[in-house]
Amino acid sequence: MATAANEQVTVTLNPVPGFCVKSRATNDTVVHAASIADGADIFVNIAWDSNVPPPPQGSEEAVQRAMRGLHIDESNPNGWFVPLVVSDARRDSDKAGKPAVVFDAVFSLSIKSRTLKDADLKFFIIELAFQRIEAQTSIILSRQIGTPNIAFKGKLQARQVMVPASLYPPSHPNHSVPAKLIQEIPSHPTADSTPETGSKKHLPSTRATPKIPSWSWCQENSRLRIEINVPALTHAAIPLSTLDVEPRRVLLSVPSLYHLDIDLNALDADLTATFAKTDSSMQALTLKRKRDLDVDNAKAEWRVADKTIVLHA
After folding, report:
1. Of 87, 304, 312, 309, residue with least CA distance to 213
2. Is the pTM above the cut of 0.70?
3. φ and ψ at 166, to 5 degrees?
4. Nearest by Cα to 233 from 198, 191, 187
5. DSSP assignment, residue 85?
6. CB within 8 A of 11, min separation 6: which ones?
7. Are 311 and 245 in contact (CB under 8 A)?
8. 182, β-bridge pairs
9. In what order do the strands lie in the sheet with 308-312?
């Protein structure tokens, strides 16, 4: 599973405007307790910042494979991928004054020049931004897009984000080689289980709406134990999955399958609304009243047989 590093660095982003694309929601949904109607305008600001890690060094063949959507193994030194930071949704309005939603997708300044010259790369990073937004929210975005004659929608704001130090190149002062946060605990082979090979891996459709998984917590000695139910998680989905642990937040993202955001700084009413359908509201309210999570010593296991991710923090 692509893991969040134990060691993350806090960086300040001051995004430079790039270009704006306009899409629309193709479903009725709720994001951060706010309703978004089917057909609502969604603006995505593509922006640049030198503090977003650049893509790893890769051959032109690896770059072309990534843009063609072929399987990418991020543990492969010849693989190529593009890091990005996507903001939370914020409210705005279109030219007619109708409600709209805006996201910022911030990429490394190092790819700006090629993006402006290479139409294939431009469409590739737009698709990456759309996929990340869909993974972080329950919005399904239309791929019929417009290009408003503006560099950005609304106002690009400075923000602090936590970035895995391992994404920076070795020459960068923020670089380090982290230990894995998640360790896989495999199940015993059965007659029904067969290993998945690279040629037979099929990622779930990126258009599927990720679900909020059910979860629970308990105290184990001095540690807090959070158990997340992920029955649909497979090896094929692992390379694009992340688990991030902050002192007052846990974020699990498995594109097209699961999106879990346990924000312990949220209002009680928001936590109740977020987890009502999974019967985890009381879990969130009681965990909120516990101490901060121990980020430095956090460890997680994907327990294949139990179909759970268990986090100790």
Report:
1. 309
2. no
3. -70, -15
4. 187
5. E
6. 51, 160, 161, 163, 174
7. yes
8. 300
9. 182-185, 299-303, 308-312, 223-229, 215-220
Query: Which pairs from 189-197 meet CB under 8 Å and 24+ separation?
Result: 196/234, 196/235, 196/236
- Helix, strand, or coil here: 76? coil
Could you tell me the two tokens for 21? Answer: 């694309």
By CB atoms closer than 10 A (0-12, 13-18, 19+), residue 130 is buried
User: In this structure, are residues 248 and 271 in contact, taking their beta carbons and an 8 Å threshold?
Assistant: no
Q: Is 15 helix (H, G, I), strand (E, B) or coil?
A: coil
pLDDT tens profile 86-129:
988 888 988 888 889 999 999 999 999 999 899 989 999 999 99
Compute the distance between CA of residue 145 and CA of residue 173 in angstroms, rounded to an integer: 38
Which pLDDT does position 203 carry in this prediction? 40
Report the SS3 class of residue 224: strand
Question: Exposed, middle or buried, 61 (CB in 10 Å: 0-12/13-18/19+)?
Answer: exposed
In terms of C-beta density within 10 A (0-12 exposed, 13-18 middle, 19 or more buried), how is residue 261 classed?
middle
Output phi, psi for 260, to 5 deg: -125, 125
From 249, 54, 251, 88, select the one nearest 157 (Cα to Cα): 88
Amino acid 8 reads: Q
